[in-house]
Each structure stands twice: as structure tokens, then as C-alpha cells.
Design goal:
Layout lengths: L10 H20 L3 H16 L12 E4 L6 E8 L2 E6 L7 E4 L3 E3 L5
Antiparallel strand pairs: 1-2, 1-5, 2-3, 3-4
């Protein structure tokens, strides 16, 4: 069985995939299977990244990190559906986050 890549899916297919992954994640959480829960959550974030137009992410801008309250991320560059940059106040090592994990500072007000 070959699975379709997120980049080849239509918007409705992506939304269905995200709903399925969230359901699997919820079930894994209920069963206490932490590693499986984390895998499904990460896959859902990746699928969500394909619903976001990368041109909406501005280089040099600061964003909130979804699911990590009080932590900010400065975008240096984009590569595919990932934003590369640095966490504010962190160890200053470069990391990549799916663009679906970034929330504009204006949205959160």
C-alpha cells in the first residue's frame, strides 16, 4: 500500500488526513502510548503545514510556537514547509519547525 505524499494531496484530502491522525493521536493518548501519540501529533502538524501558504511566513519576523506558550521563534529562512531559525532566549542553535507550528504575534492578541 503506497501512501500519498502530503504535497500531492488536495485540501479536502489533507483535512481528512489531519482528522484521522488527530483521532489516532487521541486514542494513543487514552491508551497511554506516549511515543505513538507523539508520532501522530507530529504527522498532523506536517499535514497542516501543507494547508499554509509559505509566503505568509515573513523572514526576520518573530512568531509564537504553537503548543509552547511563552516561547518565540525568529524565522531566518524557509525551506519547503519548514521555517529555519532560532528560539528567543534559547541556546542560539538553528532549528527547523513546520510552518504550521508558527503563530503570528498579531493573531495571539
Amino acid at each position: 500500500m503506497s501512501e500519498k505524499k502530503y504535497s500531492d494531496m488536495t485540501v479536502p484530502e489533507l483535512r481528512t488526513e489531519i482528522a484521522n491522525l488527530k483521532e489516532k493521536s487521541r486514542k494513543a493518548e487514552q491508551l497511554g502510548i506516549v511515543n505513538e501519540y507523539a508520532v501522530y501529533e507530529r504527522k498532523a502538524l506536517m499535514a497542516q503545514a501543507f494547508l499554509i501558504d509559505p509566503t505568509t511566513i515573513k523572514l526576520g519576523e518573530m512568531y509564537r510556537i504553537v503548543g509552547d506558550p511563552g516561547v518565540f521563534f525568529q524565522v531566518e529562512y524557509l525551506k519547503g514547509r519548514f521555517a529555519w531559525g532560532y528560539r528567543l532566549g534559547g541556546d542560539k542553535y538553528e532549528e527547523a519547525l513546520p510552518i504550521s507550528m508558527l503563530e503570528s504575534l498579531e493573531e495571539g492578541k
